[in-house]
Design brief:
The protein has about 280 residues and is an alpha+beta fold. It has 8 helices and 15 strands. The chain has 2 domains: about 1-115, 2-Layer Sandwich (D-amino Acid Aminotransferase, Chain A, domain 1), CATH 3.30.470; about 120-275, D-amino Acid Aminotransferase, subunit A, domain 2 (D-amino Acid Aminotransferase, Chain A, domain 2). The protein is globular. It binds pyridoxal-5'-phosphate.
């Protein structure tokens, strides 16, 4: 079952107009929200970010938070798995002419949910690889836009190179991953790019910071260079579907001689507590 414009229907019955601006222009925003033990994790934070994305592109939020919660929970009632990943997208709607500028339209709302399989700590301890690339994206990466061409190009590169993620840099400063936020540990301190228009304000990023505080790890929300990344003691990426993954190899070079760090282990454990709280 999926949700489309007020109705719960079979996915193969869900259709949108070719004049939908989401289809024509990628004129829309989205959210990905994890569900653990049948409970939507950090729904309020996701709804706040959704509101910020909508405000930035002048789409009126079609529902209030209670209505969103009701719709999402109803959709989940059709799902069997206790762990899910909800995908919701709002496009500006269907226009009569293909024109870049817009009038007020009824937004198109589409939601689906799919089983989520979190990796075990044991599996994560194997470590993952990444490559680095210049950040060619626009200057409003804070908007969770459905226009994802650059991210698609990076993710395809990651797939072809058989690595987990592409880590991006502007100038020589690391911004984030193509589909994640990025963190390093250097001499016991956690560094991550500050909130700005050059990164998505990840919900998991906030949870990583919350967990790091519990682990008494000092935090600096300042950017770091590619060189600092290469010589980091630990390197992690975070996202709602991948949680917190240790990266032990970048561009073919080992981080911390390929070892998983203690800071990651502590932060991972606190994150699991938050998930199961
Ligand atoms: N940065 C980018 C570019 C992303 O696409 C994502 C998630 O898809 C994130 C960061 C992490 O955000 P969140 O933790 O809210 O999933």
């Amino acid at each position: 079952m999926v949700f489309l414009n007020g109705e719960f229907i079979e996915k193969n019955q869900a259709h949108i107009s070719v004049m939908d601006r989401g289809f024509l222009f990628g004129d829309g925003v989205y959210e990905v929200i994890p569900v653990y033990n049948n409970k939507i994790f950090r729904l309020n934070a996701h709804l706040l970010r959704l509101q910020a994305s909508l405000n930035s592109i002048k789409i009126k939020n079609p529902y209030n938070p209670q209505k969103w919660s009701d719709i999402l929970n109803k959709l989940l009632s059709f799902c069997n798995n206790q762990e899910q990943s909800i995908y919701l997208q709002i496009s500006r709607g269907v226009s009569s002419k293909r024109k870049h500028s817009f009038n007020d339209l009824a937004p198109t709302v589409y939601i689906e949910s799919n089983p989520l399989q979190s990796k075990t700590k044991q599996a994560l301890k194997a470590g993952f690889s990444a490559i680095t690339q210049p950040d060619i994206r626009w200057h409003r990466c804070d908007i969770k836009s459905t226009s994802l061409l650059a991210n698609i190009m990076y993710s395809q590169q990651a797939k072809e190179k058989n690595v987990e993620e592409v880590i991006l840099y502007r100038g020589n400063q690391v911004t984030e991953g193509a589909t994640s936020n990025v963190f390093i540990i250097k001499n016991g301190t956690l560094f991550t790019h500050p909130i700005s228009t050059h990164i998505l304000p990840g919900i998991t990023r906030d949870l990583v910071l919350e967990s790091a505080r519990k682990c008494h790890i000092p935090i600096k929300k300042t950017s770091f260079s590619i060189n600092e990344l290469n010589t980091a003691d630990e390197l992690w990426i975070s996202s709602s579907t991948r949680e917190i993954m240790p990266i032990t190899q970048v561009d073919g070079k080992l981080i911390n001689r390929g070892n998983i760090g203690n800071a990651w282990s502590c932060v991972y454990d606190y994150y699991q507590n938050l998930k199961n709280a």
